[in-house]
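pinging the channel bc i need a second pair of eyes. not urgent but kinda urgent?? the chain im working w is below, pasted from the shared doc
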Amino acid sequence: MSTDPTTVSLVLGSGGARGLAHIGVIQWLTENGYTIRSISGSSIGALVGGIFATHKLEVYAEWVLALERMHVLRLLDPTIGRSGLFKGERIIKVLRDLIGDRDIDELPLSFTAVATDLDSGQEVWLRKGKLFDAIRASMATPLVFTPVRHGDRTLLDGAVVNPVPVAPTVDDATDLTIAVDLSGPLESRPVPPISASLIGDNRYRKQILKFVEAVRPPRGAREPSRGLLDVAFTSMQTMQATIAHLRLSACPPDVLVQIPRNACGFFEFWRAEELIELGRDRTAQALASARPSGL
């Protein structure tokens, strides 16, 4: 029997804070004998995938695990009279300082950040230039972050046309294509309990867990009234789930990892610990289910 590692083309989908599950997906794959040779991502998928390509994913994971609600709010830079609520420059600067920027050509694996041309509606594959410039363009979520000027194009979030971009990996010479869809079916309780081994004796992480439980609405509580942004985000999420389903049907991966679209809210990055564990859990399930097919 061959002991060579299984090589993977990894496709990471869009979905705001749910994308922290991508960290758990990558951790599980690398711990279980899979070698990631190629990454394609939209929005948060481009962000997490790009950081992994720099070999700094654990640095990012530790940083995001320490975030509280107010930390997330301070990373947002509101705009006035522009084409988005936030400029997105503050978070990119923080990540550039934390991770260090690189040219995409210099990365040790193939990387594609997917964006959308605002004027033509075309899907744009960003494979050259500065990594965080490509990430910023890919995560320019309509209404949330302002569009980005990239060369002679104005770019938006890749999720507008391809939330789970498998197509850039089609010609890869890898054993498996594994895609992570953050718009999976709704579940009543999608996030599993956080394992004690993840929390350990870290007092600060225990405080984060206590905070997460405090802000989670009680079961059976009445649904709050929906504001303008809530309706807009829910509508975009529904459209992106439909687009993702159609694109995945046309270009299916070998293995599909699905994260429930109600796992968390768009900006709930302070729930990193449970979302990372969710990513690990769903990856293990997806690969276990795929093995009988000959994987």
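so The first strand starts at residue 6 and ends at 12. and Residues 228-250 form the longest helix (23 residues). — does that match what u expected or am i reading it wrong
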